[in-house]
Amino acid sequence: MLNFPCLCARSVPPFRCCLNPYVVLKYLRGQNSQEAKITSIEDRSSRVIRNIISTLEPGFGVRLWSGEHIGPTAGPTLLINDPALLRQLIMRPKLDTIVEGWIAKSIDIDNGSLFDIVSLASKGKLKKQLKNLPKWQLLKDIPALVLGGRGQKRDSGLAKDNAFVSGSSKEAITHHYDVSNAFYRLFLDERMVYTCAYFTDWSNSLDQAQEDKLELICRKLRLKPGETLLDIGCGWGSLLIYAAKHFGVTGTGVTLSEAQTALARERIAAEGLSDKITIHIKSYEHLEGQFDKISSIGMFEHVGAANHDTYFSSMNRLLKPGGLYLHHAITRRAKRSKSAWRRKTPENRAIIKYIFPGGELDHLGMSVANLEMYGFEVHDVENLREHYARTTHLWAERLRAQYADAINEAGEPQTRLWLLYLAGVSIAFARGTMQINQTLASKRMRGMSAVPQTREDLYK
Asked: Closest Cα to residue 291, out of 325, 245, 341?
């Protein structure tokens, strides 16, 4: 339900009213009937946008569907291509409306990227600036926009209706990872590593940073020739190939993605490692045997809180006594109460609905507590937040540079969704609203652990 400036008490804050909104609408229709007859929905939409932009004064320009340009003419420009978009946002003030508008190209960016728009957003205090909005003019225009149509819900068909379950099913994994191997190849590094890179220098290439990440993982696990390594959610097999070639291990990978497995097996064969690496299309809980080392790199986000017991008990069962386990996962910040923690932000809900159906993030304290509860000893935790902000930024820029080829491979709606997703998560990591941690643990036992007394071997 809409809220409007109060007509009966000046002390009431703007856009909060003690009157019934429909009473306000009736009043305004009577007072402004003549203006409503001569002013089109398009005119009212452009006037609302013009008033907002002129008040907030962002560092980027805005071009409307009519060709009218508001604000700076040099640099990036936000395009609003559909006058109905504003009405849709009023009727459905949800992030989904913006996502669908972006997919449909009702919103677009010219001469720049989402990163540029965010960096040039208004630098002043938003609450203070909003006080300067021409409230009575907005009060005339916004109800008329509401009355002008229903603001129909857009539907790109890319959202999953059953996205908000706890844990990703095989269908959900297919939704994300089986878009197209060729599509992912357009923006990933040469090894096709789809997890956070590690930048020993911020100017390093993506290829170098991903190689350094694989090296760091192998060092943290203290891999030795002849050992067995299990990689949970092995993707295109990059870590297993690297570990087998450079550390002499025998590798086993599990994944639920048919497309990833097919390419991983091709790459393993091309490297002459078919006798050293085996990939299974199955869930980790159905594996048997024990392994010297286990890595879980960017997979745990799919597990879901309802399945933590099965997951951690499986990791303990599959790891040999004293063996090492590396838990690499995206997390959210902890909250002061469990109820606050359980509330998902609009951004989090959008990612689950469009990108990672069934996905669920924990917080660092929950990860550490689960490891200890299920028989592990935690040795090290390293936060790689800035590294993932850089990684996803490079992915987004590389995909934008290959825009035409990406459309040919996956279609424009899917390409635009991935561009929005990659840029959005990069911004979230840069701002610190999302974290990513590598947690090294061993299967608890008496005596000395398999971890050296110093960490000199990691960073020499």
From this structure: 325
Strand order in the sheet with 61-64: 69-70, 61-64, 77-80, 107-110
Report DSSP state, residue 135.
H
Classify residue 271 as exposed, middle or buried by CB count within 10 Å of its CB (0-12, 13-18, 19+): middle
What b-and-e string marks burial along 59-93, b requiring 16 or more CB atoms within 10 Å of the CB?
ebbbbbbeeeebbeeeebbbbbebbbbbbbebbbe
d(CA 175, CA 407): 17
435-458 exposure pattern, b = at least 16 Cβ within 10 A, e = fewer: bbbbbbbbbbeeeebbbeeeeeee
Cβ atoms within 10 Å of 179's Cβ, excluding its own: 19
For residues 283 and 286, give the distance between their C-alpha atoms in angstroms, rounded to a whole number: 6
The single-letter code of the amino acid at 330 is I
Q: What is the CA radius of gyration of the chain?
A: 26
**How far is it, in rounded angstroms, from Cα 86 to Cα 292?**
57
Would you call 360 helix, strand, or coil by DSSP? Answer: coil
- Closest by Cα among 335, 326, 347 to 424: 347
Predicted confidence band of residue 77 (pLDDT cuts 50, 70, 90): very high
- Does residue 392 surpass a pLDDT of 90? yes
Say how far apart CA 351 and CA 458 lie, in whole Å: 34
C-alpha pair distances (Å), 190 with each of 259, 283, 358, 397: 17, 27, 29, 16
Phi, psi for 357 (deg, rounded to 5): -55, 135
Average pLDDT, the chain: 87
User: Cα(310)–Cα(312) distance, rounded to whole angstroms?
Assistant: 6
Count Cβ atoms within 10 A of the Cβ of residue 281 and give its class: 0-12 exposed, 13-18 middle, 19 or more buried.
middle
Q: Name the pairing type of β-strands 77-80 and 61-64.
A: parallel
- Identify residue 41 by its one-letter amino acid code: I
In the numeric block, which tokens belong to residue 241? 């190939």
pLDDT tens, residue by residue, 168-189:
777 767 777 778 899 999 999 9
Nearest to 41 by CA among 82, 93, 2: 82
> pTM to 2 decimals?
0.87
Q: How far apart are CA 233 and CA 229, in angstroms?
A: 13
